[in-house]
Amino acid sequence: xxxxxxxxxxEFFNVCVVPLxxxxxxxxxxxxxxxxxxxxxxxxxxxxxxxxxxxxxxxxQGLLHGNRPGLPPTxxxxxxxxxxxxxxxxxxxxxxxxxxxTQTTDMDFDASHLIEVRESPSKGLGVFAKANIPCGxxxxxxxxxxxxxxxxxxxxxxxxxxxxxYESLLPSQQKLYLSLHGFACTLYKEKVERDMRQDWLQxxxxxxxxxxxxxxxxxxxxxxxxxxxxxxxxxxxDFSYNSALGKETFHAIRDISAxxxxxxxxxxxxxxxxxxxxxxxxxWGFQCxxxxxxxxxxxxxxxxxxxxxxxxxxxxxxxxxxxxxASCRMALQIVQRLAAIQKSEGLLGRELGLxxxxxxxxxxxxxxxxxxxxxxQKELEVDRYCVGEDHPDFEIELDIVHRLRAAVEGSAxxxxxxxxxxxxxxxxxxx
Length: 431
Ligand SMILES: [Zn+2]
Known about the structure:
Order of helices and strands: HHHHEEEHHHHEEEEHHHHHHH
Mean pLDDT: 78
Strand content: 5-15%
Shape: globular
Bound molecules: zinc ion
Distance between the termini: 28 Å
């Protein structure tokens, strides 16, 4: 459904990097054996220990309540865990659509005057806030500098097409393009060699440079400013292609202070352990030093939360597959726990919205439209600050919230539009 633009990154891995590990972000249902098979040849890291084929009740309860052996109970914001525990007698379903007006985005405006490109310690250039930037601000909205055969072509683009696209740029654009940082990993060079039927070292220096810049900077296309933004495993921006604007947009997903570096996640899916993230980031040729990757007490605490996220994510993939009412109730608990940890860890981008989306789906599968509405409103709020109200996804989600509200108020049944949006037909409940 064209839902998350970080899936663009995934397409890259599917072709020029060995597929990593399946998560629920993958739209296809997966079998547990595929997950296990996918893990085995790729990771040699000790902290990627495959989960048991079916978690024990004790293990699951430990994860759901944050009590892992030898570790103190987690102290997280449980706000997002509470909805299913006690359904409010009269939920205020009008609130979420109207509050946070200060976070909404002026559609004709980006705040690129509030940022600057300058040296980032040990990272080369980076993008920094010159002033305080509130959550929800559209920091950048820019068209592609270099795009290959439409956005779907993405990182899988044929090297010949990339070079052709470069040749078609104006000289001034080529100069800007060549000012970007380039890096090509071995796997990408091998892909280029297959495309060009030529050894990497036999290519001209210009062609190697153009292709290295492309692969190091593209997320659907290469952008002059957006491609300057460095990675963090706890990013403060989320990016998305807005087809209504024909631009890539970068939104602040929390308040950003003056002087702070702006960051995005280069990785598809934040529910990953440190070594899994490192393996992926190797493709960009750097080691992340963000707060989630630092070897400090706090860094290790954060890592423990990522391990929990990974475990919960994998359990969720398994439970979706089962498709019974009991598994649905369990999946709802799991996804609420996921959302709570994501929120407490500052993972506030569209993946949090996806957790809310899943929670709404499970509530609908369990026949509870009222709870589904509350979760759908939470997803809407995430997208309000992540992509803005002019994004096609936001408009769809707003329509879904209206339809769910009509169902809750009894003026209409849960209709086919809602059913399709939450893909309720995909996993029929068997009992
Ligand atoms: Zn990191």
